[in-house]
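Propose amino acids for all 366 sites.
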């Protein structure tokens, strides 16, 4: 450690990305990502139409050492120059989480570096502090293929969950709708490209849960509505045209954007009622890459006079820099773990909130 600065290794293996990164924080110059290595597994799982936990776990076990070595080499550091090792200890696919936790324990045992177990969702939720140094509290929307929840981030270890999906995550819905329209995976970018040439008003898909108070969301009924509209077209004209597909994609995307925007407005109302101004809203996750959705969220913030923040996409999707950073925040406030650190497939950020229902294609939702 140099004059109050901290340098932390982060390890991530909870889903289908094997990742290692080194992040440092200096009291004067702030946070810096010294290296960030992400090895995806998309091609390994592609033939199966979803993430296969056993294949993911094996790939993590084979690649983690190598990722850590690359992260150290890129940062020009050795293990002995670090201050601690942080690792995702859940939630996620248990085999992968275990691989990461075992490696981190091994490094800690061999070097004497403190060990820090990190909640993967805390990694996502604390990223705006790594990229933009924003103050607590702030409102966060995690929106990806595996996550969908509104959180007020009060402290590195204190999160208030305002609501989340009761079934599919939005990215999961994009992927399933793409599949049923014969579009490639990942579905999000494919749907967005089709929707750009479509008429979002031709099919008026439901806006699930808008009639109910609160910030919970639901996307599986919307997916079924697209399926019905498709089958209806097929039975009437024995197939769907290119324009039908574009219009279905546009209608679906418009419905997701409308629901996310309205629930964001409600979450912001709640946040503003209890938080000091100026308030910040941050969005993270692969779905935040969608221009229509991003624009809808941005305009909600604009009309409410709230700062809108979206970290760069490489830091919104799964990575280890966010794990190193969340570990650094915990370490700074004195949090470390012993060799009894366990891997947790489920690990809600807000233990007081009602448990989530269902389980996504990318493993258990927290
Ligand atoms: O955050 P991420 O890379 O991984 C996790 O799910 O953890 O998010 C991937 C998800 C996929 O479901 C993908 O279809 C969706 O984000 N996605 C999009 C777009 N780009 C990626 N969804 C809508 N529009 C996009 N442009
Ligand atoms: Zn994630």
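Proposal:
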């Amino acid at each position: 450690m140099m004059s109050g600065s901290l340098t932390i290794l982060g390890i991530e293996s909870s889903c289908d990305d094997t990742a290692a990164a080194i992040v440092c924080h200096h009291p004067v110059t702030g946070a810096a990502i010294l290296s960030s290595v992400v090895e995806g597994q998309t091609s390994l799982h592609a033939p199966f139409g979803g993430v296969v936990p056993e294949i993911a776990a094996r790939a993590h076990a084979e690649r983690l050492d190598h990722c850590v070595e690359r992260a150290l080499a890129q940062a020009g550091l050795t293990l002995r120059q670090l201050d601690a090792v942080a690792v995702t200890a859940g939630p996620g696919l248990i085999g992968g989480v275990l691989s990461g936790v075992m490696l981190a324990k091994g490094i800690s045992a061999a070097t004497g570096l403190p060990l820090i177990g990190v909640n993967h969702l805390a990694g996502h939720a604390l990223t705006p502090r790594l990229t933009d140094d924003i103050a607590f509290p702030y409102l966060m929307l995690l929106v990806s293929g595996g996550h969908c929840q509104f959180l007020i981030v009060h402290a590195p270890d204190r999160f208030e969950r305002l609501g989340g999906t009761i079934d599919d995550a939005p990215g999961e819905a994009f992927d399933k709708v793409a599949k049923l329209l014969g579009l490639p995976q990942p579905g999000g970018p494919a749907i967005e490209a089709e929707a750009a040439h479509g008429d979002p008003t031709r099919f008026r898909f439901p806006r699930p849960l808008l009639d109910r108070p609160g910030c919970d969301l639901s996307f599986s009924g919307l997916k079924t509505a697209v399926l019905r509209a498709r089958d209806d077209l097929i039975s009437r004209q024995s197939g769907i045209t290119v324009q039908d597909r574009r219009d279905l994609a546009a209608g679906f995307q418009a419905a997701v954007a409308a629901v996310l925007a309205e629930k964001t407005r409600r979450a912001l109302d709640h946040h503003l009622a209890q938080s000091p101004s100026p308030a910040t809203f941050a969005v993270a996750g692969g779905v935040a890459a969608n221009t229509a959705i991003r624009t809808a969220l941005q305009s909600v913030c604009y009309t409410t006079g709230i700062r809108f923040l979206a970290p760069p996409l490489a830091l919104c999707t799964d990575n280890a820099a966010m794990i190193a950073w969340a570990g650094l925040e915990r370490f700074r406030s004195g949090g470390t773990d012993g060799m009894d650190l366990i891997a947790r497939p489920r690990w809600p950020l807000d233990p007081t909130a009602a448990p989530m229902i269902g389980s996504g294609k990318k493993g258990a939702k927290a």
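The two ends are 34 Å apart (CA to CA). Residues 6-134+317-332 form a domain with the Nucleotidyltransferase; domain 5 fold (CATH 3.30.420.40).
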